[in-house]
Amino acid sequence: MRAVLRSLIATTFLVTIVCVSLIGLHHDDWHDHVETLKKQMPATNGMIPPALTKYIPPAFQPKPEPQPLEYGSLPWLGKVELDPMPYPTESEKAIVMAKLSNEDTDWVQQELPDWKAFIYTVDDQSAPLHTAKNKGREALAYLTFINEYYAKLPRTIAFVHSHQGGYPQAWHADNQDFSNVESLQALRIPYVQGEGYVNLRCNTMPGCPAQFKLGDGGSITEEVMKQAWTEIFGDTEPMPHAIGAACCSQFAVSKDQIRERSEDDYKRMLKWLLKTKLDDHQAGRIMEYIWHIIFKRPTVFCPPVEDCYCNVYGACDWNPQPQ
Hints:
It is built from twelve helices and eight strands. It is α/β, with parallel strands linked by helices.
């Protein structure tokens, strides 16, 4: 009975292939084409014979399995285990975050099940997803994700911190309950796609109007920023006079906006972060205030607060800014 069923399925499938693939054939070619298919029929055994695949239109060709990412292009990372989760698909939303091994991030899947989570542990090399070292606060996890998934990015990615909410640990979450969950639930994905990049913090303090003024003199951090600029951005982007944006390294970005820069750009940034002699705090602070520049926003990017709440979260009739 099973043999009959397999034969029936194979015959039905092959007849379908014949009908579809012969649409574009000239009438004189039909006979030879059908005879070729018939010769292959006895060898089917319920499967598509390899020799027949050349007759299947492209849309019906079997799709190859995703190939493992090749880490040879990132020699400074060494050999790391591949993400055990499936590659994100075109329609998916993803959350990327860094965490310490003792932090509980189960809230992401519990409260935001429609987001695929890529949570990098920064202090445990045995974790399924981990960074090469604990450096630069959340920045190393963010750059590691972009480098690993550049060719397979989900359509919308939110880069956020590991705490669910509450004051003071999530003071930078921009709603009355200081909740990352509420922020992401309210996030207007079409606006993210239209703009390419949005800061998840609308409150412009700290960071605006200019966190860094890169003229003569200035603070130690400003001098460090001047030294790091060329190493991060190369020689193609002149150093600005001022850099300003709302803090605190939480933002959403589209796949297309990430790809406004080449893979080589992100490799250079990742290499800088791994190799710089700056300590964890300084390196993280440098990255905190240049994400908007990396994603092609103006060097001073401080949208009006009311416009930000309305556009990013749809809160157009009230101001949920924490006091």
